[in-house]
Structure formats: C-alpha cells, structure tokens
Amino acid sequence: MASPEVETVSSGADKAKLGAAAALAVAGFAAFFWLETQGAWVQWAALLFGLAAGAVVFFISEPGRQLIGYGQDSWRETQKVVWPARREAIQMTAYVFAFVVVIALFLWLADSLISWVLYDLILGWR
C-alpha cells in the first residue's frame, strides 16, 4: 500500500515572515488603542495599515502562496460545475420539502403510537 507523501518543508525565512506578519497585525491593533488621543481617523489608519502590511508579508511567504494557489484551484473547479436550471432547482426543492413533510408526519405518528401504547395500555396513566 503506497502512502501519500505530505510535504511540510518550511524554511526559517518563511517562519520569520509569518512571525513578522503576526507582529504587524498585532502592532496595528496596539496602535489603534495607543493612538486614541489622536482621533478616529488616525486610529483606523494605523489599524488598517498594520493589517494590510501583515497581509502583504503573509502572502509573500510560502504558506501565503499556497493559500493563493488553493483559492485559484477552487475557483477553477467552481467554473467546471454544471449548475441546474431554474426549473430543476425548484423541482428538487419541492421534492425535499415533500420528503421532510412525510418524515415529520411519520415521526409524529410513531411518537403518538408509542405514547399511546406505553401510557394508556401498559401503564394506564391516562
């Protein structure tokens, strides 16, 4: 049996980039609260700058590039999907609702029957 190989190679530079990205995001949050006396515009600018800088550093690291590749592959797969026509979608939705109603009625009847047998016939409580 062949075992699939999982590639988990991570260089020190990528770890440093991830650490820098996290530090920049945390610095943006810290600046938001530290600059509260400067006004809302300065606070939000510092927060957005820190988050944007952290995102840029993350996306130039190997995990960031893998995330971008995953997103591109997912988008390509979504383009291959053959979506049902409106009539088919409505018809299948109606089937699902009808099935739910039938199952609900079955469960209600089964519960009522079991309750009647247990409480009325066996225990005589009602």
UniProtKB/TrEMBL annotation:
Intracellular or extracellular location(s): Membrane
One of the Pfam families matching this protein, by short name: SecE
Keyword Protein transport included in the entry's annotation: yes
GO molecular function: protein transmembrane transporter activity
Transmembrane region(s): 18-35, 41-60, 94-119
InterPro entries per record: SecE_bac, SecE_sf, Translocase_SecE/Sec61-g
Family that this chain belongs to: Belongs to the SecE/SEC61-gamma family.
Protein name: Protein translocase subunit SecE
Protein species of origin: Serpentinimonas maccroryi
High-level lineage: Bacteria, Pseudomonadati, Pseudomonadota, Betaproteobacteria, Burkholderiales
UniProt gene name: secE
